[in-house]
Design goal:
alpha/beta; 10-stranded mixed sheet; 3-stranded mixed sheet; 24% strand; disordered N terminus
Length: 287
């Protein structure tokens, strides 16, 4: 495991995904993402977008569903994107972030929002890591790079502790840090849904999870997993984004996409579920 660091350095995190999880050639990657965004239906969300739920598998499997989430913010401008995901690897710590100054993708480097991370570190403990192999933050970046109008900085957060107490603490701390810049920040929960059930069973399980998401019930997202009624590998990311979004004025969630890996592979015996959602505030932001 790469060594951790207690501060952000000046170098860029190289991509371990390019050419594997998504195209490594910049022109091919841009064309792939643009095509998926163009093919995604336009969804009328009744309010100001505060956050998104997007899946994080390889683009061949979950890309079209992720595009349904990012289509919602196509052409919008945000100063920063806070991407919260699970940490799928056995690093120590509850909430991890990068010790690099930027994330590299074939479309260019995305700078890390160091001031926001430093402000967050004053409220909760962060563990800084270098050269991590985690895919669930990076996989969202090319979509953000192609969908958003203009550059943005990144606040990457990866969760090892996905208990309700931990994610509530993170969501509240994040809202406190972002309160003054709420309208200029996009929250992104990176999560797949059920894993390796037959397609029919997966769809039933995922309906339960997405019902909790649509009900804007962050504690319910954690609870249905703990009771074995539904599953999401990034349940803590979903719940933390919901907690922060509600504190920043959001009051509704709209499901904008769903699929399973069977839709691509044709194999219905063991599938992974993918959901997309938009979190919105019906009332306009008051400065």
């Amino acid at each position: 495991m790469p060594a951790s660091s207690d501060k952000i350095t000046t170098d860029t995190r190289p991509s371990p995904l390019a050419g594997r999880w998504y195209p490594g050639d910049p022109r091919r990657l841009a064309a792939t993402v643009d095509r998926m965004l163009a093919d995604a239906p336009t969804t009328d969300v009744p309010g100001r977008i505060v956050g998104l739920l997007a899946p994080h598998a390889g683009y061949i499997y979950s890309g079209p569903t992720a595009a349904r989430a990012f289509k919602v913010v196509a052409g919008m401008t945000f100063d920063r994107a806070v991407v919260i995901s699970p940490m799928h690897h056995p690093y120590p710590g509850e909430v991890l972030t990068t010790a690099h100054a930027a994330y590299e993708t074939p479309l260019g480097a995305v700078p890390v929002d160091t001031p926001t991370l430093e402000a967050l570190a004053d409220r909760i403990e962060l563990t800084y890591v270098r050269h991590d192999p985690e895919h669930a933050v990076e996989i969202e970046l090319p979509f953000l790079q192609r969908a958003l109008d203009g550059p943005f900085s990144l606040v990457p957060l990866m969760l090892r502790d996905q208990s309700w107490a931990a994610v509530q603490r993170l969501g509240e701390a994040l809202a406190g840090v972002l309160e003054s810049t709420a309208g200029r920040t996009l929250l992104v929960a990176s999560s797949d849904l059920s894993h390796f059930y037959p397609d029919r069973q997966a769809r039933a399980l995922d309906r339960v999870m997405l019902d909790r998401v649509a009900s804007f019930d962050p504690e319910g997202v954690i609870d249905v997993e703990e009771r074995g009624e539904a599953f999401a590998c990034g349940r803590g990311a979903i719940a933390a984004v919901m907690v922060a979004a509600r504190a920043l004025g959001a009051d509704g969630v709209q499901i904008v996409g769903y699929s399973t890996s069977a839709d691509t592979s044709g194999d219905t015996s063991r599938v992974v579920g993918y959901g997309a959602a938009a979190i919105y505030a019906a009332e306009p932001l008051v400065n």
